[in-house]
């Protein structure tokens, strides 16, 4: 599971996704769970499709939450469970999909027996657009409206690179570790991901090939 990423500069987001230039905002460049970051979605209040850049909490707050701070993590969501898991079921059914801009992201490698953070970039140097879901939650006590989002992941047990990440479970065989990978959304697929019908979206929820990732220990 990814629990740390670097957000691009505002100008890089505008150039890559053509969004955000008219709505100046500030957010943390290094993003951890429960920090404020940005995500791209289909504009909520537009009569026609357009993209909008939104500030939100990286940890999706479900509709049934009684308070903003949750007792369980929601910064990542298993893509295979979206339709069944209560936390994500409604956003998934409603098509509340988003793209999370990321200059790079981090995963832990345990091949040495110790936690060694690896940093992953695109070989092209362009920022990632990572698949996510968003939700809007209202605090019933205060009336505060909070935007939030989660990053989708997919099983990577058979992936030559991403299967090397995360601490192995000695009780599980190698092909059943449930190692996870983020899901990049290519620039040409962004609009389909944000607003397309289910038959268009399903093929986009896939494991990216190894050559899509440029990874190395973060200290290197």
From TrEMBL:
Its EC number is 3.4.-.-. It holds the Pfam family SRAP. The keyword Zinc-finger does not apply. One of its GO terms (molecular function) is single-stranded DNA binding. Keywords: Covalent protein-DNA linkage, DNA damage, DNA-binding, Hydrolase, Lyase, Protease. InterPro entries: SRAP, SRAP-like. GO terms for biological process: protein-DNA covalent cross-linking repair; proteolysis. The keyword DNA-binding applies. Belongs to the SOS response-associated peptidase family. This is Abasic site processing protein. It comes from Rubrivivax rivuli. The lineage of its organism: Bacteria, Pseudomonadati, Pseudomonadota, Betaproteobacteria, Burkholderiales.
């Amino acid at each position: 599971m990814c629990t740390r990423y670097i957000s691009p500069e505002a100008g890089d987001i505008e150039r890559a996704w053509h969004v955000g230039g008219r709505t100046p905002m500030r957010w943390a460049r290094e993003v951890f769970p429960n920090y404020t970051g940005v995500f791209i979605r289909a504009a909520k209040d537009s009569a026609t499709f357009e993209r909008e850049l939104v500030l939100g909490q990286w940890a999706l707050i479900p509709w049934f939450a009684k308070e903003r701070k949750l007792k369980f993590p929601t910064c990542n969501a298993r893509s295979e469970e979206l339709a069944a898991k209560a936390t994500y079921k409604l956003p998934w059914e409603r098509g509340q999909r988003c793209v999370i801009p990321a200059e790079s992201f981090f995963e832990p490698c345990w091949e040495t027996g110790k936690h060694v953070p690896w940093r992953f970039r695109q070989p092209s140097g362009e920022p990632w657009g990572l698949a996510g879901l968003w939700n809007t939650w209202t605090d019933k006590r205060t009336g505060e409206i909070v935007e939030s989002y989660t990053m989708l992941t997919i099983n990577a047990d058979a992936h030559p690179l991403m299967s090397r990440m995360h601490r192995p479970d000695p009780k599980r065989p190698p092909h059943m570790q449930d190692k996870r990978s983020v899901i990049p959304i290519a620039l040409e697929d962004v609009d389909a991901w944000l607003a397309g019908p289910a038959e268009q979206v399903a093929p986009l929820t896939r494991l990216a090939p190894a050559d899509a990732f440029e990874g190395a220990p973060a200290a290197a």
